[in-house]
Write a structure and sequence with these properties.
By secondary structure, the protein is α/β, with parallel strands linked by helices. It has 4 helices and 7 strands, in the order ββαβαβαβαββ. The chain has helices spanning about 20-25, 60-70, 85-95, 105-110; strands spanning about 1-5, 10-15, 50, 75-80, 100, 115-120, 125-130. Strands 1-5-4-3-2-6-7 form a 7-stranded mixed β-sheet, covered by helices on one side. α2 runs parallel beside α3. The protein is globular and about 35 Å long. The chain starts with a strand and ends with a strand.
Length: about 130
């Protein structure tokens, strides 16, 4: 597990098996996924622990992440399989915790799980999953 942006949050997992193009997929004011071909179509990422494989798209996606944070419609944290520059930059600008996890950790996360992320815990990373 790698921590790209630190933070301490608790929330409910909203997981996608797909990549997310923040510029073309997320409505900036509501945080709702608007791409009809995405598995999170019509769901809001607001106040979730958003788990997805990776980000795709242009560097403007980083600004989109910052915009959804400014509109109070951002996820509490993001967890990805792969780091990409767009998501890392957007999370850093918006101060949204971002963690990169292994395949096993990714597979263990399910939509609806309560998750606590404390990236500054004594054991290098505290990442608890409550059932």
């Amino acid at each position: 597990m790698k921590i790209l942006v630190h933070g301490n949050v608790q929330g409910t997992v909203l997981k996608s098996e797909n990549s997310i193009n923040f510029l073309g997929t997320v409505e900036k004011k509501s945080g709702v996924i608007t791409d009809q071909n995405h598995d999170l179509y019509n769901k809001s990422i607001k106040d979730s622990i958003l788990v997805f494989s990776s980000g795709v798209g242009s560097s403007v996606g980083a600004y989109t992440i910052y915009s959804i944070k400014s509109n109070n419609s951002a996820p509490l944290a993001m967890i990805c399989l792969k780091a990409d520059l767009t998501v890392a930059t957007g999370c850093a600008l918006a101060d949204i915790p971002l963690l990169i996890v292994s395949d096993d950790e990714f597979n263990s996360l399910k939509t609806g799980m309560s998750v606590v992320i404390n990236t500054k815990a004594d054991s290098p990373i505290t990442f608890e999953i409550k059932k």
